[in-house]
Amino acid sequence: MDVLGSGHEQVVFCSDAESGLRAIIAIHSTALGPALGGTRFYPYASEDAAVADALRLSKAMSYKNSLAGLDLGGGKAVIIGDPRTDKTEALLRAYGRFVESLGGRYLTACDVGTYNADLDVVARETRYAHGRSEAYGGCGDSSVLTAYGVFQGMRAAAQHCWGSPSLAGRTVAVAGVGKVGSWLAGHLVDDGADVVVTDVDPAAVERLQARFPQVRAVEDTAALVRTPHDVYAPCALGGALDADTVAALPARVVCGGANNQLATAEMAGRLAERGILYAPDFLVNAGGVIQVEDERHGFSFARAQSKASGIFDVALRVFELADAEGISPAVAADRLAEERIRTVGRLATIRLPR
């Protein structure tokens, strides 16, 4: 794994034999501020696979935080192991000490396999753990504003495509109705959309339909893709937009909460060729990181939600730039993120008195 050629500022390998901790912390950029990104606890097949994931996810966090207008860089940590069997107090606290050793260059939060309660344990060893439970003054479940931000991005896509920022009368296909997907479905129902869903966990679908009986369900993602719909919302695992899915999609818009939705970079161009408007995932799912960042200032849900509402305007800027330059929205979003990192990050070179 070519870590040195990745363009990252710092990659830290963390090991504590007694607790079983094996982790990698990747700091992609601190140009805009300390690198914020979650901790993923996952049974990677190899250390190389874990490093590759940390590098990829940390770069995405730099772009996500930049587009969200936050004074934060991008980082990510991965812990190698099965969170169901390997997660212990000792391991989490050992990890917290490694985070603390970076002196605030990296701020951690929840991700796949870690939860608010885990961050409460990590925080016993570091000042730089966020996304904590409400009982400890934290922001709680960040999926609430993640879904809200995706909904704002979807409203912007509707405005761009159909001239109205409403999903009323549109059919939205939601793949994955866990935390983010279920909150998103609720926003869509309230807005008057016709919602059809699928999930690998039948219980998740049953919970959603108990709240919203009008939501339709299909057996699996393949069936969902074949179902006529206007908007496709991937809200489960990454890589959902592969060549077969992109070729089959009947949607006019793709906008969902999952990270790294494009199986390969060329899928952005293929979506554009088919006339499908893609709302870049790292733009529209930034509500969660906005919620976590607000915790640093004494959490206010109303203030964080107000910030997350800005995703609507940023998404419109991305779509307009893509049209004006004849590029995909994914490339347009990258350009806007990189421009802010360059122009605002440059200000750190102006020396201030001590």
Automatic annotation (TrEMBL):
**InterPro entries in UniProt:** Aminoacid_DH-like_N_sf, Glu/Leu/Phe/Val/Trp_DH, Glu/Leu/Phe/Val/Trp_DH_C, Glu/Leu/Phe/Val/Trp_DH_dimer, Glu/Leu/Phe/Val_DH_AS, Glu/Phe/Leu/Val/Trp_DH_bac/arc, NAD(P)-bd_dom_sf
Amino-acid positions noted as binding NAD(+) in the UniProt annotation, renumbered to this chain: 176-181
Q: Where is the active site?
A: 76 (proton donor/acceptor)
GO MF annotation terms: nucleotide binding; oxidoreductase activity, acting on the CH-NH2 group of donors, NAD or NADP as acceptor
Which ranges carry the Glutamate/phenylalanine/leucine/valine/L-tryptophan dehydrogenase C-terminal domain?
A: 140-349
**Keywords carried by this UniProt record:** NAD, Nucleotide-binding, Oxidoreductase
Listed SMART domains = ELFV_dehydrog
Task: List, in alphabetical order, the GO biological process terms annotated in this UniProt record.
Answer: amino acid metabolic process
- Is Transport one of the keywords? no
Segment forming the signal sequence = none
Q: Which domain of life is it from?
A: Bacteria
- Which Pfam families does this chain map to? ELFV_dehydrog, ELFV_dehydrog_N
Q: Which family does it belong to?
A: Belongs to the Glu/Leu/Phe/Val dehydrogenases family.
Protein name, UniProt field = Valine dehydrogenase (NAD+)
